[in-house]
């Protein structure tokens, strides 16, 4: 790493064209409803995390796959506009890019119908792993496990902090990926999948008992984040910032990106969790990812509860 530059966080996984419809309430089928607004945005766990890293003052690179369709053009242009390094973005001829329909109700809660793409391939041999030499942290989601496995092995060999966005996925994928990362941060559904229905504290204890994992946590929306360090038995809590949520889409992704940047900056785990909590709260309140000055002011002016 170059100490004169902001740290680089490499984010591997999903980038999605999000078609977002704002509605009064999510209808139950059969139904036909009028949307109050529509927008086409960049989504996907790793892509949202990369944008968060960049807006919070770090350098970000995105590694993942898109097709050669119209959605891909929008996604590439959007990521470039955020000044994200796309050396590791692979465009697959004849493939279709991931896309989703997102319905956001008047309370800020959302329903997502996702299409994970088609013919994108799984071969990770093209990944620019040499870029890891300049990275301060590496983050991945579970949507491309073959790529995550290769990159996590290379990152660990170079003593780079690694973070997993443990979103809802097949249990077998989480069981494979969690022991490969130093910091596993789950959603509630993701931890349920990983722990096969075990209580959250027990599932977190299991996570930090395996592989290279040093810390496991679970974000719980309007409740505190539970977390545990390896070698400890008592579960800790990171309180939340109370906000009026406008749109919770991507809030967890932003949390992960902010936490990874905190690791790249050498923060203690608790401070990185606080930065993630604030960045995620602002994303849910504003419906957009905040910059560093705004996030630090929010932390200073608000009380964790």
Sequence-ordered SSE layout with sheet pairings:
Elements: E1 8-13, E2 16-22, E3 37-43, H1 45-55, E4 59-66, H2 70-81, E5 89-91, E6 99-104, E7 110-115, E8 137-140, H3 145-157, E9 162-166, H4 171-177, E10 183-186, H5 188-194, H6 200-207, E11 215-220, E12 223-229, E13 236-238, H7 251-264, H8 269-286, H9 292-301
Parallel strand pairs: 1-4, 1-8, 2-6, 4-5, 8-9, 9-10, 10-11
Antiparallel strand pairs: 2-3, 6-7, 11-12, 12-13
Helix pairs in contact: 1-7, 7-8, 8-9
Domains, number: 1
Q: Tell me the structural class.
A: alpha/beta
Shape: globular
Query: What fold name stands as the CATH topology?
Result: UDP-N-acetylmuramoyl-L-alanine:D-glutamate ligase
- What's the name of the CATH homologous superfamily? Ribokinase
If helices are DSSP runs of H or I spanning 4 or more residues, what is the number of helices? 9
Helix content: 25-40%
Overall pLDDT: 95
What is the chain-wise order of helices and strands? EEEHEHEEEEHEHEHHEEEHHH
> Hey, roughly how much beta strand do the residues contain?
15-25%
**Strand tally, please?**
13
Q: CATH top level?
A: Alpha Beta
**What is the CA-based Rg, rounded?**
18 Å
Order of strands in the sheet with most strands: 5-4-1-8-9-10-11-12-13
Gap from first CA to last CA? 36 Å
Sheet with the most strands? 9 strands, mixed
- Uncertain residue ranges: none
**What is the CATH architecture term?**
3-Layer(aba) Sandwich
